[in-house]
Amino acid sequence: MSEKFTFEIRVYYEDTDFSTNVYHGSYVKFFERARTEWLRHFGIHHFELAEQGLAFAVRKMEIDFLKSAHIDDLLQVSTKITSLSAVRISLEQEIYCGAEKIASAQVMVVMINANGKATRLPKAIKSVLST
Hints:
The protein is an alpha+beta fold and 131 residues long. Helix content is 24%, strand content 42%.
């Protein structure tokens, strides 16, 4: 549907467990950072959404851990829309270390209002993400 957006992340000590391998929970942070930068690429900023009483929330995430990343690795995290509706965005995200894919995730995000209820994507956001 859309082109891949790629964001680089360096693995720091705080991302690892006692063995210098990346702790599994850190991959969720890496995917989140890449989604935030992907939105920023489209001119969509969390603080502006918050001013409108809106936010993106992860509804569903499935992660496939293929290989370990290690301290000091430079990772490339890609984000791509696989489907877009009035209320949800489905994304494919992948993490590479060089040419080797080490993790992938299928992510569904929804827009929520200040009360935490799912709401339609604003037309301007849906329009920019549809291009």
